[in-house]
Amino acid sequence: MNAKKLLLVFLFLTTISQGVYSQFGFSHEVGVITGPVALFSDFGQRNDFETNSGNIGFGVGLIHYLNFSYRADCNCYTRDTYFNDHFKLRNEIDYHVTNLEHFGRWVDPDQQGQFADQLRAMKGKTTVIEIGSQIEYFPLSIRDFAAGAYKIAPFISLGAHYVAYDPELYSELGELNIVGGPLATTPEKYRNAFQQEGGSTWAVVGSVGIRYKLTPLSDLMLDGRWTFYFTDYIDGLNPSLENNGTRPVPENKANEWMYWLNIGYIYYID
Fold first, then answer.
1. Per-residue confidence (pLDDT) for residue 23, from 0 to 100
2. Best exposed site among 74, 156, 223, 256 by fewest CB in 10 Å?
3. How far apart are alpha carbons 204 and 114 in whole angstroms?
4. What are the residue ranges in the chain where pLDDT is below 50?
5. Which residues, 6 or more positions from 5, have their beta carbon under 8 angstroms from its beta carbon?
6. What is residue 178's predicted lDDT score, i.e. its pLDDT?
7. Distance, CA of 123 to CA of 189 (rounded, Å)
8. Are the C-beta atoms of residues 238 and 199 closer than 8 Å to each other?
9. Distance separating alpha carbons of residues 68 and 61, to the nearest angstrom
């Protein structure tokens, strides 16, 4: 699925949800989010600060909320239940791009030899589009926050996303997958352990954030999100004995995951 198709799906689902839930009187919110993305992948050394800070990308997203605490059809509050006053449903489509390279001790300047040179020369880029939903929980009253009783409303969320990804890999030494000899471009652990084709998967999404009441009909949002992908090919690499056929890779312990720190603007639709 490409970006245009996923955007059309998001707009279709948003329109359908607005039509269906408006019959029940729920109101809607729309907004945009943007911020830096840290992709934890098979590029670089595991648990290394330079790796984590070096492989930083950027993302943007469109978001839509179902607000169960307020009725758009009568400009009044809904029935006062705990769910209506503490939960919102968040739908969104996100786009993020990250350039990748190897960092850490194995590519330090004092590391010499073919292996270090191969790692330094290996580069990558991945483009990811996600569409999905999260349920957000607000410990404080959503009604009180909307009425201006307090300026800040914290929240946590959990949900699932459908993910389309498109990795690109190359070596500055030449064609990838050349392993033996003086012209080798690819470390043994990565032989036959990469893909250039795009694919799709699912992801679990969780976040912690706050809303700041800007005006009666708008909020600013700061959101820290963790995303765990159900594939190890988001970055195009999946080093393993099963793939390379000769070398175990015990350091490859998990699939890719991402941390996204984003700021957003949200507008309440009457």
1. 47
2. 74
3. 39
4. 1, 16, 18-23
5. none
6. 79
7. 15
8. no
9. 22
